[in-house]
Amino acid sequence: MLLEVRDLHVEFTTREGVAKAVNGVGYSVDEGETLAVLGESGSGKSVTAQAVMGILDVPPGRIAGGEILFRGEDLLKMKEEDRRRIRGADMAMIFQDALSSLNPVLSVGAQLGEMYEVHRGMSRKDARARAVELMDRVKIPAAKERVGDYPHQFSGGMRQRIMIAMAMALEPSLIIADEPTTALDVTVQAQVMDLLAELQREMNTGLILITHDLGVVADVADKIAVMYAGRIVEAAPVHEIYRAPAHPYTRGLLDSIPRLDQKGQELYAIKGLPPNLLAIPPGCAFHPRCPMARDLCRSQVPPLYEVTGSPVPRASACHFWKECLHA
Predict the structure, then answer these.
(1) Where are the alpha helices (DSSP H) in the chain?
(2) Are 303 and 321 in contact (CB under 8 A)?
(3) By the 8 A CB rule, do 245 and 251 touch?
(4) Confidence at residue 260, expressed as pLDDT on a 0 to 100 scale
(5) What average pLDDT does this structure show over 229-258?
(6) Is 166 helix (H, G, I), strand (E, B) or coil?
(7) Which residues make beta-bridge pairs with 37?
């Protein structure tokens, strides 16, 4: 197993109290595999990824428990110097806002080349040549002429390609892409996702794709973990999620996708808002918004039940997953 997250807990201390952002999350991804982590804003997707990468803001953040195993070694027990060697070389992250993630006063060539200078000890000249190769690889036109350009001189789609190039530079075993298609138009989204999939196949890289858009992951993911209020509420292979969701929240996300065969109909939306992480509701955190909620849901936190009868392993944190599965 390339990466395995076990029972991870992350908290943030605020003036109002302790916000429990991640509550016992566990998932895994292997080489060449794509795991999509879905959920609304505030569900804990990005915080989990930051904990994996070791870039969590501490304080106010704090890892309160759990394990993060990379090739069998617990990253949380490593010295910071050792984790820094792994970041970039063995695991990398693509952030959602390329313009704010790239340094505005350095050329893209300098930023790409820095990876080779720091991790491979290359000269500046050789690193710049590798930067041009990287830009060519992610299909940026006239890479040799544009290697000295600055981030603001590129379009949003081209900047995202530069972020992908930066992540792929040292051919890491694992890449975490945090909403890489946010703020891009549909055509550019497809191009970026196709590029990610192509590079992943070339290098057999494990990919964790963080998104709130089920439409983006349909063609690229192998399995899906759906998060709500800091917990995974459903985990299954991608085709099983789309065929028959076993959690009301997943069903609500699927029903919210616009469909061509429903022209003129009102678009479905999940009622209410995600819970305040300072005061997560008792029982199932989704029960205030759930159309299937009963007294049991309001009092008992559902474990991650094994969905029996499925041809493939899958799980759902719903007391009434059987009813949801056949709804």
Answers:
(1) 45-53, 80-86, 98-101, 108-120, 124-137, 143-146, 156-168, 186-203, 214-217, 238-243, 248-255, 295-299, 321-325
(2) no
(3) yes
(4) 66
(5) 92
(6) helix
(7) 210, 225
Please write the tens of the pLDDT for every residue from 102-159: 999 999 999 999 989 988 889 999 999 999 999 998 889 999 999 999 999 998 888 9
Looking at the predicted structure, is the pLDDT value of residue 296 above 90?
Answer: yes
Q: How many helices (H) and strands (E) does the chain have?
A: 13, 12
Name the one residue in this structure whose structure tokens are 């799980």: 315
Residue listed under structure tokens 């952030």: 95
Q: CA-to-CA distance for 50 and 46, rounded, in angstroms?
A: 6
Percent of the chain scoring above 90 in pLDDT:
62
Residue 230 zone, left/alpha/beta (φ > 0; ψ -120 to 50; rest): left
Instruction: Tell me the sheet residues that pair with 315.
Output: 235, 306
Q: What three-state secondary structure class fits 5?
A: strand
Collect all residues with Cβ–Cβ distance below 8 Å to 158 and sequence separation of at least 6.
140
What is the rounded average pLDDT for all residues in the chain? 90
Q: HSE on the CB side for 325, CA within 13 Å?
A: 19
pLDDT for position 78: 92
Burial readout 136-151 (b: 16 or more C-beta within 10 A, e: otherwise)? ebbebeebeebbebbb
